[in-house]
Amino acid sequence: MVLGAKLLVSFFDLGRACPIMEPKRGKSVLALPRSAGWRGAAVPATGWHHTLDGDTNNRHHDPDENEGENGSREHALSMPEGYPEPECKPPSFFGIPSWLVTFTKMSFDSRQVLVSCEHASNRLPEDMKAPPEIMALHIAWDPGALKIARRLAETFSAPLHAGEYSRLVVDLNRTIGNSVLVRRVSDGHRIPFNRGLRRSDVQRRIEDYYLPYRTAVLGAVEGIIQDRGRCVHLCIHTYTPQLGDNVRGNDIGLLYDPHRQPEAALVHELRDALIERTGLVVWLNRPYQGTADGILPRIREVYDAEAYVGIELEVNQRFAESPTELVDITDAFSGCVQDLCGWKERDGKQLMARKAS
């Protein structure tokens, strides 16, 4: 009876039990607790921003920026250093104690893994110029993300898709129609090669850089699902330790959709294993919501939760300054995945054979 109850609860809609992690479907506002340290009390679940050509029909909420007090843009979901992780307990169900609630354990094969890194580079096409000091900032790329992605792809012998140019050219991790698909201003810096752009200029960038990348990633996902029945997509990003006045309090973020049970199962196990292995601060859906506009939510719309599992690994960019620490975090993450799925014992020889081929 207890086992049956645990299985039943494991499929319960975790997002409804933990509204701080994901706005309920159909709600216009995600209410946040008014505890000391929060930057905002409420965040619109969908943003209304002006697009590049002045239209106001964009409903995609951008995870990097939020309309704050006095019209300023800030990330209202970040918390100051040392502020405790938002508590999100498993739901009680018909009086069943929370300690009896578990997730259905997920297992997958290393051949089902796909790695992507949208903000891998700060390079520019030859016809675009910008001061080097701007292109070195976090607004232009995710420092350290490509190193993590390459090492994970090598460890799992997985295909890797990485952005070739800076996110300031066109953001591969935003949906067409998002106001920040092409940014004119980012974190207070004006982007010189984005001034005076016409609709046709943006469309050309979409056709030249955006669509080829998105098409390639979606094709890789489809191929893995067709061949292996499931794709586990590891999307690699890093985030600035401080955005405006907001200091991010975590070292690692695991982003996912709490409405999809396989993702929830994997992420909760990974979080616990990473904390035990590294001693670092690992939070779920921080510093961004796993369902905010990006490549993973768009692919989730195409495939069901059993066929497609999308996990975004976010690492604090302060570790990018130390190559050794970055490698240690990457190896800890891959080691946790291997341990949780039993790959070291079951697939070790197979992985070595694939690397040699």
Structure explained in plain terms:
- With 357 residues, the protein is of the alpha/beta class.
- The chain has one domain: Zn-dependent exopeptidases (Aminopeptidase, 3-Layer(aba) Sandwich), CATH 3.40.630.40.
- Helix content is 32%, strand content 13%.
- The protein contains ten helices and twelve strands.
- It has a six-stranded mixed beta sheet.
- Helix 4 (145-156) runs parallel beside helix 8 and helix 6 crosses helix 8 (323-341).
- The longest helix is centred in the middle third of the chain and has 30 residues, at 199-228.
- It is globular and about 55 Å long.
Topology diagram in text:
Elements: H1 2-10, H2 14-17, E1 29-31, E2 42-44, E3 113-117, H3 132-135, H4 145-156, E4 160-162, E5 185-186, E6 189-190, H5 199-228, E7 231-239, E8 242-243, E9 246-247, E10 252-255, H6 261-278, E11 282-284, H7 295-300, E12 308-316, H8 323-341, H9 343-346, H10 348-356
Parallel strand pairs: 3-4, 3-7, 7-12, 10-11
Antiparallel strand pairs: 1-2, 5-6, 8-9, 10-12
Helix pairs in contact: 4-8, 6-8
